[in-house]
Structure formats: structure tokens, C-alpha cells
């Protein structure tokens, strides 16, 4: 992927006031590394978390810092990571923000707990009163909102959504202050921060579109149906850059029924070798130089259709027996005698290789990646092809030559092949599709399963974490029940001791 991709969607330092007011609008680097005005929707945390942490640091700074001595540095570290090109293959550093919001919420909980008694009893001097007022989250939130609104107006960074969001947030901060000061019910007061957070997030969602900065498309409802494509075939779709060609600003009419950009092919259970992939780690995406949404470079598309679309080309080896070409490109697969047009529209044309669709598992006598080897043809039947595994019956003739099976699916590291109790090595053709060599005389049910080590270790870790959470939950419940019984027991013993105490003499009662 391009080096410029790592500089897209970094959290700019100028956007940090958006933690208070999400309508704060400054320039962010978008998907094309163009700096465009963007609201701070990704920084929206419901007002309470940021204000509560600041109020806690003002009202009981040392005490709170001791309590969150690990969380606070981690919070600052994650925020720094979101502002630097640190996401690696995950491309956009703002993807650190969910982790940031989680840590911020935990710190805010500790801050609210510490603010229940920030000052010593009896302290009534002017400085103490000021600290008490400044550490009130509702009052502090109102002050910060006013300051942020003034800065927005003076710097002209309010954007299109400053009204009515700013006024609603000011009302929520005032409501938070008055309920915290004048509400007597402690149980209800404990739920006020959660209620304010929910209302602030709801208002943010209603006032600011959640998909700002993302290209919008008028996708055809016909994408839910496979026609005019065939679910039994494997397609290669060649179309221009979707963001510049099919977005609403460029094309108002419904799009997608023919070219199926991105991963829209999955809606109708169609099989494409190119589609949406923000990581592009291996396989077809790397070999054919596809971009994020499956777009193939026009020069690469011209090469594939003119030199690799024959019965001996790479597309045939991969199992591609259908090609979709957008109208803007106008290339035709060659040789023309092997392809026929089965559908044409304003959006593009659909070509099918003449004859029946390719089998999803094939036995090949030779392959150019192993030029000095010949293989026997095996009988392949009853193919069951699903998302993560393929099952098929294989019968290899006896002799001194093995069979070579190719699978029409993209190759990634982590495939395993088993025939009954025997495990076979899984290789690939130039990283494009899996290949399994089956010894002569083998017969049985062959299973190809995608089971990478990271998936197995990750699944095991997730299960272990779930068990720890469940055990901790039941342990906490049991400890709470034991504490309640201990309290009841101590209360009963106190009552018993008081009942056994001798009554005072009449002289003491006078």
C-alpha cells in the first residue's frame, strides 16, 4: 500500500477541543490524503468523560493521579498513537480512538468516585469554595462549553452543525449541575452521568451525520439479485476508481448491478476475485495490484484481458470464467473466440468463457510453476465449497505419479489439507490459489481448511478471557452475598449483646 495511506485520518492536534464539542470542525487528511474540513465526530465521548476527568484533576488531583497512575499514561499514549502514523497494515491511526474512549471512560469513573468528597470537612474559606465549584463536573462542563463555543466563533471552526448542538450541550451541562447540586436521592444521582452521556451521544448522532467524510453511493437494489451474473462462475471485475466514478456527486442514477464494486458482490452470493480489502496482505490483491475497493490499474486490466485470459493464462488457472468490464474502460478479453457477451448495459458488459463453468476443485496434469513435473488426473466428485473449507471426494489412480489439485479461491497462509488421517502440504501458485499434491493410490474425502495459527491462538485467548470474565462475575456475586450475610450476622450479635445488657438502676434514669 502507498506510504501516503499512513498519513490519512490522523487525529490532528487542532481537533482535540472536539472532546468537549463534536461540532468543532478542522481539516483532516481524508482517504485521498487531501486536507478537508471534518467534524470531530470520532472524538465524541458524550461530554461527561472528558469533563469528569478534568474536574477530578482539579478537585482531588494527587489522590486521583495515585488511583489512575497506570491508566492516565496509557490514555495519553493511545491519544499520541492516534495522532501519529502508527496503525501499520490497519492504515488509519484514528482506529486507536475506541481504545482511547474506553480508557477515558475508566478514568472518568474513578474521577467521579473521588469527587464525592474532594475536600476535608469544615473547609469553608474562599479558595476551598472555589475549588469545590471548579471541581463540580456540571459547572466545569458548562464553562468549558462556553469557552469552546467562543473559540469556535472566533476561529470560525463551528462548521455546519454548531447550531443547535452547542445550545443542547449547554442545556445538558446546566441540567447536570442542577441535578447534582439540588437532587437529594443518592441512588438517582449516581445515574445522572450515565444519563447525560447517553443524551449527549444521542444528540450528536442526530445532529451530525455519522458517515461524514465517507463517499456515498446510490447503489442499485438489484445488487441483491445475481442477475445477469451467474453464482456458479468466478468473476474478475475491472472498473475505474469507484470513489471518483460512482459516488453520488459523480453519478446520481443507481449503480453496481453490473460491475459490483467493492464487496457488493457478496449481497447476491456472487464469487469475485477482487473486492474490498483495506489491508491487501497477499494473494490476488498483491499480484494484480488492486486498490482498497478492488479497483485494478487500467494497465494491469489491459494486460490480464489481452494476455492472460486465454485457456492457458493465469485467469484460467485461477478458475476465472467470467469477466465484467466497466463502460469507461472499453477493453475486451482475448481471444474473442473463447468469450461471449451475455449482458450489456450503460454501466458495462459481462463476458462468460464459452462452455460450462469451471469446477471449483480441478486435477491438472501440469502447471508452469513446476515445469519439470507431470501429474496424473484424479477423479474429483461431490465438492462442498464453503467460506473457510472445501470438501471433495478424491480418487487418484495407482502408479508412480501423484495428482495435483487446484482450488479456485484466493490463497492465504494457514490452509491445511487432510485426507482421512493423513495431512498434506498446501502450497500455492505464485500466491494466487491453493495447490495440494495427493499421492498415487489415495482415495477418500479430502478437506481443505483455512486454520491459521493467529486464528487458533486468538480464538483460544478470546475463550479464556470470556471464562475469566464469567468466573469473576460469579466470584463478585458470591463475595457480595457473603458480605451481606456477615453484616446481618454482626447486626444480630449486636442486638443480642444489647438485649443481654443489664438495665440501669432507677437512680440513673432520673
Structural account:
The chain has 510 residues and is of the alpha+beta class. It has three domains: 3-207, no CATH class; 221-353, no CATH class; 361-454, Sandwich (Immunoglobulin-like), CATH 2.60.40. The chain is 38% helix and 16% strand. It has 15 helices and 16 strands. The protein has helices at residues 48-59, 61-67, 71-82, 97-114, 126-134, 137-155, 162-182, 186-190, 192-207, 242-245, 284-287, 298-307, 314-318, 453-500, 506-509; strands spanning 25-29, 35-39, 234-238, 271-272, 322-326, 339-344, 348-353, 361-364, 379-385, 389-395, 403-407, 415-419, 422-424, 426-428, 434-438, 443-450. The strands form four sheets. Strands 4-3-5-7-6 form a five-stranded mixed beta sheet, with no helix packed on it. α1 crosses α6 (137-155). The radius of gyration is 33 Å and the shape is extended. The termini are far apart.
